[in-house]
Write a structure and sequence with these properties.
The chain is mainly alpha-helical. It folds into two domains: 30 residues; 125 residues, Tetratricopeptide repeat domain (Serine Threonine Protein Phosphatase 5, Tetratricopeptide repeat), CATH 1.25.40.10. It has nine helices and no strands. α5 packs antiparallel against α6, α6 packs antiparallel against α7 and α8 packs antiparallel against α9.
């Protein structure tokens, strides 16, 4: 019995050491996953944020915050199809009309990044109809929406 416990502890230590060697830090767990993912997004590390948010979704598959920020993270990484799917999935869990408007605006932003202005306009209109159109909508209508200005607005929602 002691031998099995020792082997199990050694195995856990080995896995932890491999994680630290790969990521340069200890693994994040529980409610800290979302916080760490947001910090990674603020630093522009979309790959790290996506990994953390995927882990959060495994623990809590109905997390609006995880779905929404994973959509943003995937967009930052240039994976727009995934971004769209996560943002659309987050709509079903939006905690308020304000967040519904933000999801629509973020989706419009994703289409804008793809140079699909008709689709972007549809989502920005939906955002406006929620009465929470956000600064993204204003920038889009004034022609001042670009990658940097869009992410600046979205990250301000944290």
């Amino acid at each position: 019995m002691k031998k099995r416990a020792l082997i199990l502890i050694s195995l856990i230590a080995l896995v932890s050491c491999q994680y630290v060697a790969r990521h340069g830090k200890t693994p994040t767990q529980g409610p800290n996953l979302l916080k760490a993912a947001k910090e990674a997004l603020k630093k522009g590390d979309c790959a790290e944020a996506s990994e953390l948010l995927q882990r959060e979704l495994k623990e809590n598959g109905k997390s609006f915050q995880a779905l929404f920020w994973l959509g943003i993270s995937e967009a930052m990484c240039g994976r727009y199809g995934r971004a769209y799917r996560y943002l659309q999935s987050s709509l079903g869990y939006a905690p308020s009309q304000k967040w519904t408007g933000r999801v629509y605006a973020a989706t419009g932003f994703v289409f804008h990044l793809l140079n699909k202005e008709k689709e972007a306009a549809v989502y920005f209109k939906l955002a406006k109809e929620t009465r929470y159109p956000t600064k993204l909508w204003e920038l889009f209508n004034k022609g001042g929406l670009n990658r940097a200005s869009g992410y600046k607005v979205i990250l301000s929602w944290m």
